[in-house]
C-alpha cells in the first residue's frame, strides 16, 4: 500500500477506502455524454465532516486532486474523477438530520437523495421544491451544481432554497454558513459562493434547505402553437397576469414526437393539430382550493387562446403526470435517440426565439441538428445536439455559447460547467472576471486540489 | 490643490469634486445612531462607470480609503466616510435605464431611489418588491446592505431581487455579473458575493432588479395577543397554511404605544384589550381578486382566533396604510424617544421568544431597556436599546449578539454590519471564517481601499 492509501484508510477506515482496480466503474463518470470514464486512484466514503476534513487536509499536503460525488447523475462531468486523484463519495452521509416544521427547513447530509427527502418531509405537509427531474439526485449534488428544474419558475433554484451549510475547506477547517434563517446581512454570503461552485471551493457536509407547504390541488394545461414566437410571447403574458404557474415549459415538435414515442404518451391531441404545430407550452398550476385551481385553469385557457394557441388541453391526472415525467426524462430520450451532446444554456427569455432559431440554423449549417425543450419561464434552453464529428461539434458549441453570452445569457442555467463545458467557458468569459474568480478559488483552495479542470483549466 | 485633488477632479470634472470644508455635513454620516460624523477629504460625484473606475484606480495607487454612498439612509454606518478618504456619492448616477416587461426586470443606476423606481414601473403594472421602509433609499444602497423590509417574508430580500450587476473592482476593471436571467450555474456567483458586501469588494454601477406583477387587492389584519409566545406560535401556523402573507410583523406593546402616540394612529382597539395584550401580529394579505382576498382574510381571522388572538381587526385602507407607515418609521420613533442604539438581529424564528425574553432581561439587568418590533416571518428582530452608558451598552450588545449567534442567528438581518456593528462581529465570528473572508476581500481589493473598518478592522 502506498503512503497515501494508508493515510486515507486511517481517516475513513480501511472498509471505506478503495483503490485502483477495486473501484467499480460506476464511480468513473457521471452522466455527461462526451467525456471518457476515468478511474480515480482512491475512492473514500467518509461518514463525518471530520473525516472529510481529514481527507482534504491530507490531500492538500500531498497535492492529490479531489473530486466530490453525490449520486453521480450530473450532466456536465463535474463528478468525473481525475487520474491519480481521490474521489469522495457522500453515499454514507445520507441522513435526514432534522425536519424543523417551525422554521420550515430540513437539515440533511449531502448524500440524501431527493426521493429520501420527499419521503421524510411528506408527513409534515412540507416539500423541498428543487426538482431537477432526476429524483436519485442528492442534495449535495444540488448544492454543487445549483440545480434547477421545472419548478424553478415559481420556487427558484437550489441557490434560493439552500439557507445554510456546514462545509469543509480544502485546508481542513469546518465552517458553518447561514442557518435556519431566510435572510442575513452579516459579512459575505459564503453559502451562495459555495452553492454552484461544483466542488471547487469547499465540500458541503450538511445542508439546511427551505421547505414549502404542500399545495393540495394542481393541474396541467398543454397548448400547441403553430408558431414558436407565439409560445415565447405567451410566457411573459402568463407571468404578468399573476397566475404564478409552477411549471412553464416549452417542448418543440421534434422533442414532443420523441417523448410521445419513447414514453408511450396518450395526450389526446388530434393528428391534424399535432402536424400543424411547431411547439407546445406546458403550464402547471396549483391552488390552495380546487375552486381557485379551476378558476386559474380556465383563465389560463382563455389567455392561451388570446395568445394564439391552436387549442388548450387540460390533461387528466395520469396523462399530466406522464407528460411531466416524460419531460423530466428528456435527457434520457435525447441519449436514447443518439444525441452527441446537450446544452442547458440560459438567456433572457425575450431572447429565446432568436437564440433558438440561430442555434438550430448553426446546427443545420454544420451538418447536424439541434432540438429540445426548456424552462420557458426561466429562459433556460435545453438542446440535444446531433453532430458526430467532434471537431465540428466543438465549433458548433462555441458558436451557440458565444451567441448565448452575446444575448446576455450564460453557458449553463442549471447543469454547471463541469469538465465538459469548462473549456468553452474559459474561451468566452471576460478575462477580468476569470482572473478575479481564480483569486477567489485561491483564497479557498491554495493547494488547488479541489476538482481541477472544473471552472478552471487543470494545471 | 493637492495632487490627489487634481487627479480626482480630472476624472469627474472639477464641478463634481469637493474637498475639505466645502463638503456639506450631510455627507459626513448616514443614519446610524452611535458614531460621530466624519468629514471625508474628498467627495466625488461620478456620472459613469468609467469615472468610478478612474477614481478607484487612482485611490488604489495612492492608498486612499473609499466609501460609497447612496442616499445616506443606512443604519449601520457603512456610508460614514473615513478621515482622509474619498466619498463617492452616486447621486448623479440616478437613471432608470430600462423597464423590460418581457423579462420583468428593471436596469437602473445605483443612485435611483425606491420612490423613483416605483414611479417608473407603475405604468407597466410591475413593482420592485424590496421595501426597507425608507423610500428615499437607493437601489445601490439596497445592494450594499442586502436590504430587506416588511415584504421580504413573501418576496425575499435584495439578494433575491438583484439578478445582475455592472460593478467596478477596486483595481479599476468594470465587470458584468448575472443579467436579465433568473438562474445561472456558470462559475461563481459574483452577484451574490457583491450584494451585501457593504462597499468592501466592488462598487455597483448598474443593477438589474427583478420586478413582480402588481397585485390589485390587499388587506391588513391586526391581532392583539395576551402572550408573546402565542404570537410566535401563530407565525409558522399561518405560513404552513399557505396563506402567503406579504407582511407578517410583530409589534410589542411598548413599541405600539410609541407608534400610536407619535403617529396619531386610530386603530379602533378598545382600551381594555390594548391594556391586556403584550404584543400584536400584523398580517398583510394580497389577492388577485377581491373574492380571494376576502376568503383569505376570513381564513386568517379564523386561524388567529384558534391560535389564541384576543381579537382580529381588519383595518380599513386608511388605518392599514397608517399602521404600515408607522411601522416603517419605527426607527424614527425609536430615535425620537431617545433610543441609544438599534439592533436588527436575525434568529431562526423558532428562537424568537427565547431571544426576545433574554434580550429584554439582559437590558433590564444592565439598567436599561429594550423594546421593538420585527419581521416575525423572517426571525428578524428589531430592538431599540435604551442605555446611556456606552461601556455598559457595548457589554449589553455583546451579550445580545452572542446569544443570537448561539441560537443559530446572525448580528444583522438587513442593516449590515457597517462601522458600528463590525467590532462586535469580529469578536464573535469563527476565526476560520474571518480568515477566509479576509482572503476573499484581498482577492477583490489588494490595496485594501474599499471601506476600511467595515466587515474588517481598519488598519
Automatic annotation (TrEMBL), chains A, B:
It holds the Pfam family FAD_binding_4. Its cofactor is FAD. PROSITE patterns: FAD_PCMH. It comes from the Bacteria. InterPro entries: FAD-bd_oxidored_4_C (IPR004113), FAD-bd_PCMH (IPR016166), FAD-bd_PCMH-like_sf (IPR036318), FAD-bd_PCMH_sub2 (IPR016169), FAD-linked_Oxase-like_C (IPR016164), FAD-linked_OxidoTrans_Type4 (IPR051914), Oxid_FAD_bind_N (IPR006094), Vanillyl_alc_oxidase_C-sub2 (IPR016171). Keywords: FAD, Flavoprotein, Oxidoreductase. Residues 35-214 form the FAD-binding PCMH-type domain. GO terms for molecular function: FAD binding; oxidoreductase activity. PANTHER family: GLYCOLATE OXIDASE SUBUNIT GLCD. This is FAD-binding protein. It comes from Mycobacterium asiaticum. The lineage of its organism: Bacteria, Bacillati, Actinomycetota, Actinomycetes, Mycobacteriales.
Amino acid at each position: 500500500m502506498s503512503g497515501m492509501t494508508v493515510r486515507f484508510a486511517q481517516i475513513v477506515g480501511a472498509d471505506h477506502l478503495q483503490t485502483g482496480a477495486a473501484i467499480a466503474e460506476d464511480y468513473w463518470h457521471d452522466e455527461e455524454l462526451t467525456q471518457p470514464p476515468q478511474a480515480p486512484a482512491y475512492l473514500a466514503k467518509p461518514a463525518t465532516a471530520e473525516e472529510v476534513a481529514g481527507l482534504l487536509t491530507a490531500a492538500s499536503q500531498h497535492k492529490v486532486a479531489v473530486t466530490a460525488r453525490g449520486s453521480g447523475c450530473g450532466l456536465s462531468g463535474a463528478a468525473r474523477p481525475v487520474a491519480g486523484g481521490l474521489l469522495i463519495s457522500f453515499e454514507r452521509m445520507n441522513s435526514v438530520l432534522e425536519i424543523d416544521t417551525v422554521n420550515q427547513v430540513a437539515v440533511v447530509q449531502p448524500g440524501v437523495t431527493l426521493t429520501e427527502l420527499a419521503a421524510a418531509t411528506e408527513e409534515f405537509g412540507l416539500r423541498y421544491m428543487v426538482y431537477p427531474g432526476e429524483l436519485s439526485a442528492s442534495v449535495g449534488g444540488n448544492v454543487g451544481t445549483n440545480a434547477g428544474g421545472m419548478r424553478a419558475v415559481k420556487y427558484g433554484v437550489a441557490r434560493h432554497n439552500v439557507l445554510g451549510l456546514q462545509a469543509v475547506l480544502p485546508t481542513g477547517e469546518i465552517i458553518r454558513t447561514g442557518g435556519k434563517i431566510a435572510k442575513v446581512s452579516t459579512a459575505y454570503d459564503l453559502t451562495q459562493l459555495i452553492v454552484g461552485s461544483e466542488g471547487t471551493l469547499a465540500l458541503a457536509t450538511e445542508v439546511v434547505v427551505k421547505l414549502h407547504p404542500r399545495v393540495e390541488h394542481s393541474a396541467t394545461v398543454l397548448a400547441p402553437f403553430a408558431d414558436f414566437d407565439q409560445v415565447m410571447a405567451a410566457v411573459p403574458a402568463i407571468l404578468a397576469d399573476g397566475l404564478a404557474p409552477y411549471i412553464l415549459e416549452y417542448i418543440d415538435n421534434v422533442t414532443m414526437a420523441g417523448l410521445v414515442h419513447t414514453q408511450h404518451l396518450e395526450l389526446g391531441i388530434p393528428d391534424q393539430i399535432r402536424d400543424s404545430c411547431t411547439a407546445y407550452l406546458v403550464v402547471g398550476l396549483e391552488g390552495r382550493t380546487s375552486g381557485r385551481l379551476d378558476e386559474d385553469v380556465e383563465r389560463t385557457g382563455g389567455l392561451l387562446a388570446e395568445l394564439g394557441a391552436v387549442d388548450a388541453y387540460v390533461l387528466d391526472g395520469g396523462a399530466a403526470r406522464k407528460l411531466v415525467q416524460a419531460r423530466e426524462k428528456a435527457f434520457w430520450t435525447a441519449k436514447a435517440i443518439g444525441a452527441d451532446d446537450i446544452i442547458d444554456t440560459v438567456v433572457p427569455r425575450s431572447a429565446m426565439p432568436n437564440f433558438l432559431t440561430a442555434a438550430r440554423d448553426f446546427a443545420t449549417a454544420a451538418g447536424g441538428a439541434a432540438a429540445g425543450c426548456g424552462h420557458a419561464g426561466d429562459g433556460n434552453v435545453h438542446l440535444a445536439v446531433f453532430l458526430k464529428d467532434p471537431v465540428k461539434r466543438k465549433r458548433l458549441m462555441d458558436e451557440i455559447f458565444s451567441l448565448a453570452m452575446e444575448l446576455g445569457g450564460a453557458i449553463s442555467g442549471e447543469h454547471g460547467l463541469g469538465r465538459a463545458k469548462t473549456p468553452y467557458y474559459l474561451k468566452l468569459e471576460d478575462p477580468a472576471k476569470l482572473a478575479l474568480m481564480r483569486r477567489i478559488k485561491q483564497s479557498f483552495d491554495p493547494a488547488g486540489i479541489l476538482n481541477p479542470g472544473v471552472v478552471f483549466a487543470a494545471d
